[in-house]
Amino acid sequence: MRPSGRQLGDLRPVSIETGVMKHAEGSCLIRMGETHVLCSATIEDKPPSFLKNSGLGWVTAEYGMLPRATNSRNRREAAVGKQSGRTQEIQRLIGRALRAGVDRSALGERQIVIDCDVLQADGGTRCASITGGWVALRLAVNKLLASGQIVSDPILDHVAAVSCGIYAGQSVLDLDYAEDSTAGTDGNFILTGRGKLIEVQMSAEGSTFSRDQMVELLDLAEAGCASLIAAQKAALGQ
Questions:
Q1: Which residues are in the Exoribonuclease phosphorolytic domain (predicted)?
Q2: Is 126 flagged in the annotation as binding?
Q3: What is the pLDDT of residues 187-224, one digit of tens each?
Q4: Is 108 one of the annotated binding-site residues?
């Protein structure tokens, strides 16, 4: 039995509320169970310097966690004076994942920055950030298309992410903190709407895992991401 009472292949309850920030070109609040992430997209009229005169655009991300997103207070990284290695790794992952679903030539020489701020954490914050970040990106691109600043849609496909792992000897979908903190194997899967893999992160935390178990987790992830993409479409009225 999972701590939440869910079946092995059940996602936590998912909701995506769009338009939650007045000034951002795209924004949403994604809730996956007790993990809540505020995602916003900002359009900048020029790309980073390394892409100047290349004809290519860029999508990048920044990630952060509020001090009381967890059960004990974490110091703000701004107060410490530097980002943790975990924060840097996660925001690079979000950026890589979202760029995989974008035609950067069609985007033109501009940058879209996705900010992901964790309001409450209960496992799977990077996956929720990617899934919600894509919605914010979609909304920002819609504004570029509506204003005529770009003529063809640079969004190639949906992008969503979900965690899977081996908990109490069983393959389970969408780990919450109670499972994530004790799972024997932990993995994050990022997929497109067509079911193509963008990135897989898997590691044995307390015991090794077999090839068959890896395939079980991938099957769970494919089904989970399909459900998350359905939630993205519903939030966008598609």
A1: 11-140, 159-223
A2: yes
A3: 999 999 999 999 999 999 877 999 999 999 999 999 99
A4: no
